Task: inverse folding
């Protein structure tokens, strides 16, 4: 790279970083200014300008503030104390954002529940935050019913929409006044108070509820307003789940802060994506890598190049798709980033460097204390030298990314807020990494960093893998398998499929003779969300374990689902047959070629 090219990249980085710092630096200086207060300010400034738009409903800035005030008064009427929790099990819609903003206004905490969960996992996510109330959208009542009898807590259940069983929250809220809260109605909040629980699967076990305080809500919205340089003329297309940080805080808050509007779609549709973007005259859209792959592999759409887009912002765009995605759809600029909901590592690829998730140039490294440390795949732990300290990776050497935890009131973004269950925190903190007494947040991601500070994603640490844009916990899948009659043991892992993002679920199982695979298929459908159900089964005589009885996965992952790599029978989860069917070389080739849709 020439000196001029390097200088150009540095200037682009500095401009983006300066915009983000300009937006975020005042947050810590104004600790009583939380996001609900920002929404009131925006209502005064932008009034009847469109804020949140969907096919179902529309809210202006004033309408969003008024709707949030109605939810706040409902929470106050129900005597929701500061710090008490309300779980929201609702699909994407403008009302969803109004609900959690209103709950926050009253001092409550909103737990944003993954709408794909059912049964044990759903009950766990509710119980772990000990809610006083649970709000269930009428269309998600069947999913909630699978978890209700498993709940250990006793929250009051509300229905949003028609329900023969629960009181109607929508009617209660409609009947309450929407004018600005009186001083006596307002909770005394600061950026240190908890605002949300957002769930992350972590590396093992059931989903964890990450503590999101008001600072992190402000940081996510304000930082990305600067990163994307949003303006009143912008319109964001948001089809990502609003129970996640990116779909619920970044794509929404970053645009609202500067007077733009957000188009909310309940679920992503590759067939209708470009029609929506053109119809709503969107200038931005938020992506995850899987979304981009679906679009690239979709048939041509006349609208795919007739849009007004200026930027696509997201994470997980695969290097092999990057150029085709940008060229085919005429995307002027792709802004890839990396961040963890509960973590302190956030990096941005302002320059549009193909394949990179972000960059930390040497001249700002002191402000963003991030390191890549050597990692022992067998032990699943960072390598320690003879002195007991971690070792930094050489340029382009893969290792785990960690971020230094700094408990400085002026730099709250470098802290680690942890999880609702405090016992889950220790596994995410790496202590005495480079000197006695230091502490670093473990991202659980393996990356490499080149000589110029660009980071490139390599893989996930531990057992969790991503499929269809969701993290899949292998222990949760194994638990579901092991409860099926006849299965003695299960070893769950992710395998690479040519042309697909993430890893597809596969399980090596030991089972009794005559295992009913059709019944097993039905059992998994009843107990796991779609993205977590194994696509492949490998039937073994026994599960290989280490000397400490930990299941071995490295060889299984390497062999994948290729029937030629093993004498063990392998089966494919066939949705049409509603069973697992024997995977032979011909079916394997059809899957690898992309002929079979996964």
Result:
């Amino acid at each position: 790279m020439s000196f001029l090219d390097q200088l150009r990249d540095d200037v682009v980085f500095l401009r983006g970083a300066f915009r983000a710092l300009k937006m975020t630096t005042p947050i810590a200086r104004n600790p009583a200014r939380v996001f609900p207060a920002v929404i009131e300010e925006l209502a005064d400034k932008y009034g009847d300008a469109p804020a949140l738009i969907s096919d179902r409903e529309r809210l202006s800035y004033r309408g969003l503030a008024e709707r949030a005030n109605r939810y706040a008064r409902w929470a106050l009427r129900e005597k929701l104390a500061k710090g008490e929790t309300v779980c929201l099990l609702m699909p994407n819609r403008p009302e969803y954002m109004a609900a959690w903003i209103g709950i926050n206004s009253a001092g409550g905490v909103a737990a944003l529940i993954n709408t794909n969960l059912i049964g044990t996992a759903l009950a766990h996510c509710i119980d772990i935050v000990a809610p006083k109330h649970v709000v269930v959208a009428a269309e998600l009542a069947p999913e909630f019913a699978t978890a209700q009898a498993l709940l250990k807590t006793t929250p009051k259940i509300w229905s949003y929409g028609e329900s023969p069983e629960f009181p109607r929250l929508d009617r209660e809220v409609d009947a309450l006044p929407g004018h600005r809260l009186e001083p006596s109605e307002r909770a005394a909040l600061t950026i240190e108070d908890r605002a949300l629980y957002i769930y992350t699967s972590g590396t093992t076990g059931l989903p964890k509820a990450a503590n999101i305080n008001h600072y992190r809500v402000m940081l996510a919205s304000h930082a990305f307003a600067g990163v994307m340089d949003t303006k009143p003329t912008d319109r964001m297309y948001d089809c990502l789940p609003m129970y996640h940080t990116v779909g619920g805080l970044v794509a929404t808050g970053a645009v609202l802060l500067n007077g733009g509007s957000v188009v909310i779609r309940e679920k992503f549709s590759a067939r209708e994506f470009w029609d929506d973007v053109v119809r709503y005259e969107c200038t931005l859209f938020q992506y995850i890598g899987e979304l981009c792959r679906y679009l690239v592999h979709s048939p041509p759409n006349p609208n795919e190049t007739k849009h007004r887009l200026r930027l696509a912002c997201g994470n997980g765009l695969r290097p092999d798709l990057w150029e085709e995605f940008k060229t085919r759809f005429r995307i002027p600029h792709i802004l890839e980033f990396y961040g963890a909901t509960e973590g302190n590592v956030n990096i941005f690829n302002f320059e549009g460097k193909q394949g990179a998730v972000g960059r930390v140039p040497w001249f700002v490294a002191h402000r963003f204390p991030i390191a890549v440390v050597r990692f022992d795949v067998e032990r699943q732990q960072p390598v320690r030298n003879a002195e007991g300290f971690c070792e930094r990776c050489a340029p382009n050497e893969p290792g785990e990314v960690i971020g230094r935890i700094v408990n400085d009131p002026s730099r709250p973004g470098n802290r680690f807020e942890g999880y609702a269950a405090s016992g889950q925190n220790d596994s995410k903190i790496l202590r005495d990494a480079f000197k006695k007494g230091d502490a670093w947040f473990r991202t659980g991601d393996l990356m490499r960093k080149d000589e110029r500070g660009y980071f490139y994603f390599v893989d996930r640490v531990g057992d969790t893998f991503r499929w269809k844009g969701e993290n899949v916990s292998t222990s949760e899948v194994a638990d579901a398998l092991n409860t099926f009659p006849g299965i003695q043991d299960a070893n769950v892992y992710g395998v690479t499929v040519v042309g697909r993002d993430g890893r597809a679920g596969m399980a090596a199982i030991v089972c009794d003779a005559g295992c009913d695979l059709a019944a097993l298929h039905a059992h998994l459908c009843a107990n796991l969300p779609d993205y977590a159900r194994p696509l492949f089964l490998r039937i073994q005589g026994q599960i290989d374990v280490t000397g400490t009885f930990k299941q071995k996965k490295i060889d299984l992952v390497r062999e994948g689902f290729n029937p030629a790599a093993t004498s063990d029978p392998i089966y494919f989860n066939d949705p049409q047959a509603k069973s697992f069917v024997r995977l032979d070389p011909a079916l394997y080739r059809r899957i690898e070629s992309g002929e079979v849709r996964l």
About this structure: Residues 3-29 form the longest helix (27 residues). The chain has a mean pLDDT of 92. The chain has 16 helices and 29 strands. The two ends are 40 Å apart (CA to CA).
